[in-house]
C-alpha cells in the first residue's frame, strides 16, 4: 500500500493504480473491493426508523426520525473555511479529478443554518447513497453524461436546478466557491426523504488494544489532510495542507471517529471539461481499514455486500469494531499504489 506509520504519525497515500479501467457502462463502473463483482446502481430498501436504540450515523439519542440529507461540499483551499461541516453526522472524503478531494456531508440529527460551498456530484456518490434508503441529495450539478444516472438513483434530487431559493450566492467569494444552501429549506423540497437506517456502524466501548496515536494523515496526488487527537475535546481535529481546517460557523472540523478506508480506485467513464477523468471509488466488497478513536488506532476489516447495504467494520477476529459516539469521518483512500487517472 505504500505508507509509513508509527505510534505518533501515520500517513496513508491515496492516489491510484496502474492499468486504469475506462468504464464503458455504469454497470462496469460498479463493484469494488476484494472479492466483489461488478454491479449496477441499485435502489435502496424501503427503510424504516432504526431499531438500534441510537442514531445509526453518530451513536446519539436524538433525531432518530429526522430525514437524511447528503450534501456535496468543496474541499480545496479556495473553499476554506467551509460552512456546516461540523454539524454533519457523517463526512465522506472522496478523491475527484486532478487528485483533489471533495466532501459529502450526511446530515440527520441536526442541521446547520448554512452549508457549503456546494459543488457538483460524482459517480462515486451514487454508489454510496443507496445504503441510506432514499435520502435527499444536494449538489450544484453534474456532468451531462451523469444526468440520466441521477434520475435513476434512489435519491431525492434537490440540486441547484431543483432547490429554488434554498441556494444563495455569497458575493464575497469567487465562483464556483460561493454557492451555499440552507439545509432546512433543502429538506422542504424533499418532504419524503427517509429517516436514518442501519448502515452497518456500531457504537460503544473501544475494543482492547489499539496503538496510541497522536496524529495521522491521508494523502492524495493534490491534497492531504491530517487529524490530530485532542484529549481536551475528545476528538480528532482536522488540518488541510498543514493548516487548521476551520468551520465558518465556528470551531475546528473533525470527528470523534475517523476511519481510513482503503478501497480500490479506478477510472470511470466520466471526465470534466478539461478532459480529466473522474475516479471511481469501489465501496462494495471487502477490504482493510484503520479506525481511529480515543487517541488510538485499530486495525480493521470492512465489508459491504451490496450497494443497498451498509458497511461493517470488524476486528481481526471478526467482532464489530465500535465507533465512539459522535461525528464519523470516512476517509476513502486507494487500496494500492498512488492513483491518478
TrEMBL record:
Gene3D superfamilies: YerB-like. PROSITE patterns: PROKAR_LIPOPROTEIN. Coiled coil: none annotated. Residues 34-59 are annotated as: Disordered. Residues 65-193, 222-330 form the DUF3048 domain. It comes from the Bacteria. InterPro entries: DUF3048_C, DUF3048_N, YerB-like_sf. This is DUF3048 domain-containing protein. It comes from Actinomadura harenae.
Amino acid at each position: 500500500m505504500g505508507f509509513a506509520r508509527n505510534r505518533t504519525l501515520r500517513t496513508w497515500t491515496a492516489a491510484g493504480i496502474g492499468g486504469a479501467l475506462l468504464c464503458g457502462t455504469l454497470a462496469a463502473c460498479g463493484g469494488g473491493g476484494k472479492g466483489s463483482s461488478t454491479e449496477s446502481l441499485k435502489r435502496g430498501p424501503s427503510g424504516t426508523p432504526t431499531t438500534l436504540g441510537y442514531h445509526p450515523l453518530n451513536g446519539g439519542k436524538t433525531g432518530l426520525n429526522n430525514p437524511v440529507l447528503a450534501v456535496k461540499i468543496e474541499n480545496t483551499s479556495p473553499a476554506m473555511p467551509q460552512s456546516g461541516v461540523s454539524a454533519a453526522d457523517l463526512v465522506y472524503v472522496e478523491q475527484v479529478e486532478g487528485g483533489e478531494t471533495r466532501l459529502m456531508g450526511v446530515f440527520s440529527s441536526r442541521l446547520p443554518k448554512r452549508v457549503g460551498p456546494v459543488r457538483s456530484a460524482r459517480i462515486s456518490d451514487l454508489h454510496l447513497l443507496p445504503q441510506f434508503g432514499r435520502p435527499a441529495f444536494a449538489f450544484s450539478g453534474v456532468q451531462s453524461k451523469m444526468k440520466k444516472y441521477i434520475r435513476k438513483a434512489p435519491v431525492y434530487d434537490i440540486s441547484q436546478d431543483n432547490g429554488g431559493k434554498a441556494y444563495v450566492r455569497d458575493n464575497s467569494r469567487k465562483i464556483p466557491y460561493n454557492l451555499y444552501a440552507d439545509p432546512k429549506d433543502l429538506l422542504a423540497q424533499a418532504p419524503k426523504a427517509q429517516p436514518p437506517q442501519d448502515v452497518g456502524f456500531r457504537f460503544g466501548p473501544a475494543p482492547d488494544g489499539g496503538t496510541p496515536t497522536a496524529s495521522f494523515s491521508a494523502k492524495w496526488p493534490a491534497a492531504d489532510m491530517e487529524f490530530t487527537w485532542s484529549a481536551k475535546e475528545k476528538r480528532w481535529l482536522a488540518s488541510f495542507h498543514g493548516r487548521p481546517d476551520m468551520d465558518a460557523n465556528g470551531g475546528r472540523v473533525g470527528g470523534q471517529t475517523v476511519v481510513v478506508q482503503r478501497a480500490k480506485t479506478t477510472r470511470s467513464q466520466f471526465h470534466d471539461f478539461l478532459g480529466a477523468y473522474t475516479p471511481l471509488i469501489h465501496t462494495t466488497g471487502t477490504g482493510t481499514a484503520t479506525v481511529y478513536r480515543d487517541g488510538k488506532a485499530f486495525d480493521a476489516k470492512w465489508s459491504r455486500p451490496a450497494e443497498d447495504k451498509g458497511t461493517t467494520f470488524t476486528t481481526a477476529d471478526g467482532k464489530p469494531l465500535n465507533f465512539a459516539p459522535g461525528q464519523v469521518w470516512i476517509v476513502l483512500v486507494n487500496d494500492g499504489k498512488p492513483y491518478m487517472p
